[in-house]
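Here we describe the complex-level prediction in full. Unlike the single-chain runs in Section 2.1, the two entities below were treated as one system.
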Amino acid sequence: MSSDTDIRKPFLDFAGHNGSYYADVFLKIQKATLGRGHVNVTAMIGSFVWAALRGNWGLFVIGFVIDLITAVNLALVYKYSNAAVENADKAYLVARYEGWSQTHLIGAIVTFVLGRILFGWLADRFYAKQYEKWRTDHSVNNGVEMRRLVLGLLVVALIAPLLLYRTTQFAPDERTCIKQDRALAEGEAVPFKDRFDCFVIGEFPTFIWIDRPDEISYPRDDNGERVIKRTAPSADAPPVSLNTYVSQSIDDGISYLTVFYGFLFDGITNVLRGMLGAITSVFVGTPWPITMAVLLFVAYRTAGPRTAIFVGASLAYLALFGFWQTAMDTMSLVVAASIICVVFGLPLGIWVSKSRRGKAIITPILDVMQTIPSFVYLLPAIAFFSIGKPPGILATVIFAMPPMVRLTALGILQVPENTKEAALAFGANPRQLLTKVELPLAMPSIMTGINQVVMMSLSMVVVAALIGAGGMGYIVTEALENTETGRGVLAGIGIALLAMMIDRVVQKANTQN
Amino acid sequence: MSTEPKRNVVVTRNVWKIFGPRAEEAMAAVRRDNLSKAEVLEEFQAVVGVRDVSIEVGEGEVFCIMGLSGSGKSTLVRHINRLIEPTGGEILINGVDVNGLGAEDLRAMRADKIGMVFQNMALLPHRTVRDNIAFALELRNVDAFTRAELADRVIELVSLQGYGDRLPGDLSGGMQQRVGLARAMAADPDILLMDEPFSALDPLIRRGLQDEFLALSKTMKKTTLFITHDLDEAIRMGSRIAIMKDGEIVQTGTPEEIVTQPADDYVADFVAGISKLKLIFAHSVMRPVEAYEQGGRKLPPIDQCPQADPEDDLDALVGRVVGQDNPIVIMSDNKPVGVVTKDALLRGIQGEV
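The structure predicted for the assembly as a whole is:
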């Protein structure tokens, strides 16, 4: 007998109130004899209140959400039946609202019944998991505590009323609220309910209003020099929102830079254009039979016959559907962008791996670069470099460089400490350590980086067609504008083939090295 | 009798190594108050890696440093080519203070004077065996032709003929460690640092490599610091052994001294499991003839007794005494110098002399 109580003791300690019930259930769970349909009736009735008392916040959320959905549905029933009464003169509206209210009623009942059964079914099983956690960590919630119930009900009180209120009301639109703001500014009286609606259940209210900034322009003076000219806004112009104010300031900053440091951006543009010109002349300027033969040969040598056949088929597709020149255009852009990425990414990666400061500076920049959607890069490219291929390449480089830097750094950091130690023990200096040990051992990682760069360049080059980079992406954007689905699909397939071609070849080349 | 080393090649004087950001502070405190390892850890969050170690390794000697993992033996040996800088003390190689060297001199010393073999081989996987072996030469900008020539010579020494153009990945563990050894010897250094070179190999291969290294070491006469956690290996390889514990050297001596006169319980524990047959010699267990005859016994005529040399080990004595009733007479210059009874022999095998 005593051994039996010993077995049950930890369960009793954990569950506290009504411990013998939970001891039975947990024992059954451990012996795998718990019935499939076992439901905790107390939990089913108590729902989130039970979960709060028992300190299982996962179940609390599940129970609360089930009841909340039920309540919202009921609120909608109320809202639409009211609406049906209000619009009693319009038969079609009455029919519509009554239909809706009926649907929500059924929704409410189904959610409540099924939800509660699910909750009752989950309750003991989740609670047993909580017990297992408690076994290793006694600070895990256990027993029954009123404090937790109060906390849970507080959460319910904060969320439920406002949410239910929101569902029973028709939310005011933004214009109504702006009008209301004006009316308030002019000292008119607005009913409290309207103000509350605008403040809480509509759009997030605009708190901040700022006086318009000075208008800034950069005309030339009599000597032809650019000067800064500020014009104060007229006194009765309405104030602007934070968003408007700051974007205006950013515009001013960018135009300042382009006006006074334009030579810098022009210089970069020219370098890019020159480089691209050289590459394009190789891809586009060479007669197609030669380009095609060379590409096939390269594919065959680096990736073997199977890939070469695939490349041949893809090239044939591009050629037969009239995409040859455009595809070669895109290839030139990809090659140009990839070269720049590698040339700048490799040293940056080495710097990141070697220097604490390098890591501190570069890593956050890379994080930001990788989280920003590719579209957003087009904006600064246009702002500083206008439209065309050079800004397209720049946007692509910014988008595609992070993996190069990261994977280079990763590769170098992964070089085993003892291999480096051995090199040092034989008298390697830092440069020899880098070139003879670290870079060769990091090579697989670096090659993966190059692969990524090429693939990301291709995807970005297509997007960059939006700012006039041309190539295959241009056909797609054009097709989008004119809703020429067929042309778009053909070009899309072409892009996909181009991507697969490059990917296969680069990847095979990697694995074979 | 063991020959006295002519000249000390590697000398460490009171070397200390304390790891941690507050190492200097801890060092000063230890010098002042003679704190223990645990006290330093608690007060300065610093770890004492090497504690006041002074060793002298003579030319051509194989000096074993034995200790369990964490005893500081690897740390100590890395001070010799300054992969680790000491917190206190000095390290002299051929009389030159290693810590006084500039960066370029240090690299030159590492490449020309010291070869190192690592437990995990640490070969470069993308280079052929030959290029791995010639690595130190390449770092010193020796031309490719000379490099290959020198490397091939060493490849022969470690019997890896025909493997020069293979990659290390194609080789077994034992062969890889031969490459490691060859790499350490390629630049013909004066000193070999061997950091548990054979520990990762399986026992048969390990024994084979030990024998080969012993043979090589006899002909090449390289001053060797050999690290191991295995006392058997230390005894096989070392002309002298230093036993380390918690960063300190507990005892230094020849294998026989370590086995027969362990300095403390720690060493005695290690020695307990070691076979003494090859380590203890007749001169240690024999008693003078007079002492034997004191108890009224009479030594039988010498020609009826098994005879042995004072330099014979217990193993040889056991061989002589089997099937005999008379004690062994130890002869030197055709004169009896001592007697070993069966009892003394059995005691000797137990390590009691």
